[in-house]
Amino acid sequence: MVVTAAWHLPMLRFVLPLTQQPSPSPAVYRARRQRIAERIGEGAALILHGGQSRIRSNDTEHRFRPDSNFHYLSGLSEPGAVLVVRPGRDPEFALFVRPRDPQAEIWSGRRIGPEQARAVYGADAAWPIGELAAQLPRLLDGCATVHLPFAAYEALDRQVFAAIDHLRRRNRYGDVAPERLEDARALLGEDRIIKDAGALGSLRRAVDISARGHLAALRACRPGLYEHELEALLEYHFRRLGSSGPGYGSIVGTGDNATILHYVDNCCRLEEGHLVLIDAGAEWDYFTGDITRTFPVSGRFTPAQRDLYAIVLAANEAGIREAQVGSTVDSIYHVCLRTLCQGLRDLGLVDGDLDGILEDEARYIGYTRHRHSHWLGADVHDAGHYCFHREPRPLQPGMVLTIEPGLYIAADDERAPAELRGTGIRIEDDVLIQAAGPEVLTHLVPKGIDELEAIVGSEA
Ligand SMILES: [Mn+2]
Asked: How distant is the alpha carbon of residue 452 from its chain centre?
């Protein structure tokens, strides 16, 4: 990191870097704003914050990652931006961005600036972010409803309330203040849950890059490597292929580390005879893949590992078969769970008849631990309701979800055969719901026992 001042650098010519180019295409974002505009109707306004840079430690920052909803509607990825959408009004799409500042840009990177924001992102109007407080009353005057993500950006909440208060006081001069607030997260979630062509294109690419990272890790795996070496290899391929990096902290856990659901220390040595669990996904254009595979470090399952693995694989496959239009995330869970519990019973880890086991969560939850699906998209746990009025919502074409059953046997589980104590197995695929049946987006990464044994260590 550069720490010396360089006052004499020439002013940076504005060149739009690759990462800022709106991809897929401006038309995708325009169509999304159009759908949202139709949903909220004339007389409403939507306000979203693009997110701020976050401090990692002292005065160094994490790489900026925009707010998913903001990016979904604008394509813009810069800290400190705000968008306003007002259906049927002029300007209908307004952006507030950081002003150009040659000196600041020498230190912390290029800025789009209001002028380019209009040209590149199709805004009808754009101002420096410092003018937000002054412009908001004018933009909200006459809007009956304001859509805002509740409790997301306190400073923005305060500015919106200040603008509303200002309009309220000026009612006797003819200003009309908004009287209703609605949660923009719910609004955006219901649009994001059905993937449009742009979202699906980005998601397919994210999943494809994720798969290539997993394939590289499978091929390179051998006893004596460390978890962080597999992590580095995965993420090397993510970045090599143009991804901005993992969409969430990569999990590489061997032995009983695999029983820790969100294990991210990734510091242990891979031992002969152990399994290793990798749960990792690459981000592309702010959409992320989410793949989990579990496989033997040495390339050969022990008979006991194979039996346990076969149960989880059967549950994963049963869950995928259940991923049909009209089915629900709940019914996928129950199909997976029935398969897992049948297997636990066959292994002698739980007693009794299957229906009795399934009725008593306390008997199996220590082994199964978590639900088996979440929506997938711009966020790894993506936006959108799972149920309405406590009823699970039916799956529709265009939804993407994960199916990820697992079994976890604690290191101190005295019921389990000694060689399975401290074992975690999870198999996770990303599935697109379609009228013709589920499409497994993650099919490139093998999960069958024979395929895994053939590929693990093949390039070690
Ligand atoms: Mn997942």
From this structure: 27
Residue 151, classed as helix, strand or coil, is coil
Residue 290 appears among annotated catalytic residues: yes
Q: What whole-number distance in Å separates Cα of residue 357 and Cα of residue 421?
A: 21
CA of 292 to the centre of ligand 1 (A): 8
> Is 381 in the active site?
yes
Task: Report pTM.
Answer: 0.93
Spatial distance between the Cα atoms of 192 and 201, rounded to a whole number of angstroms:
14
Q: Could you tell me the domains of the chain?
A: 18-191 (3.40.350.10), 197-455 (3.90.230.10)
pLDDT tens digits for range 182-220: 999 999 999 999 999 999 999 999 999 999 999 999 999
Direct distance between the N- and C-terminal alpha carbons of the chain, in angstroms, rounded to an integer: 35
Is residue 429 within 8 Å of 402, Cβ to Cβ?
yes
3-state secondary structure of 191: helix
pLDDT digits (tens, 9 = 90+) for 261-309: 999 999 999 999 999 999 999 999 999 999 999 999 999 999 999 999 9
